[in-house]
Amino acid sequence: MTRLATAFAKPHAAFVAFITAGDGDTAANLDALARGGADVIELGMPFTDPMADGPAIQNANLRSLGAGTTTADVLRIASDFRERHADIPLVLMGYANPMIRRGADWFADQCASAGIDGVICVDIPPEEDEALGPALRARGIAPIRLATPTTDAARLPRVLEGSEGFVYYVSVAGITGKQQAAIDSIETNVARIKQSTDLPVAVGFGVRTPDQAAEIARVADGVVVGSAFVDLVGEFGKDAPKRLEELTSAMVGAIRSARERQDT
Fold this sequence. Notes:
Elements: H1 3-8, E1 14-20, H2 26-36, E2 40-44, H3 55-66, H4 71-84, E3 90-94, H5 96-100, H6 104-114, E4 118-121, H7 132-138, E5 142-143, E6 146-147, H8 156-160, E7 167-170, H9 183-194, E8 201-204, H10 210-217, E9 222-225, H11 227-236, H12 240-263
Parallel strand pairs: 1-2, 1-9, 2-3, 3-4, 4-5, 6-7, 7-8, 8-9
């Protein structure tokens, strides 16, 4: 069983935590997420034009790029994390340009060497994924696709084709950090997606508090939180790890309690 499959096979919804590589002390921040109990960690690859991201993650990208972070740095950070944490799944999330600039095979090779479990490429639609997805799958790395509230019944099969690891359901039609969608809408769309796939469905965008995470944990297989963590890194700098660990622990506790209450 892969690390991702193991993470989603637990008796509670998986907690997926996101931070941006190169923003602050990334190694210390990643370790804090691990100590807090994150089931999966997403590591954002900084990019100049992060079109799907709101102000918090845009600013994190700018801070990271301003510090000189490169794709090679991101891969080194990932590799070092894997040496310290053998069992926690690590997913790269970013945009096509830095992933394919030196070729999809090169990038997939580097991901495999670094111990990456999955890759989310925001801006390559399934119809145009002729290189990156196959290269990742050939090396045992999951290409993780995004579904949205506007992904209709005609479109969904294309999104799911070739998807591995989990499906990332974007709960709002917009950028990261926006207000969370109504839970009834999330529940309906998650159920609709699950009718068409055996992959777990994780919900993100707009989730900022433990209460929100608990609400989603009752209807989805995973909960993704990014902007709330990125805000802490921006606000607290070198003191961020303590805050990250505290918030992670609170999120994990809320998610597990929610599923326990549901099962009783």
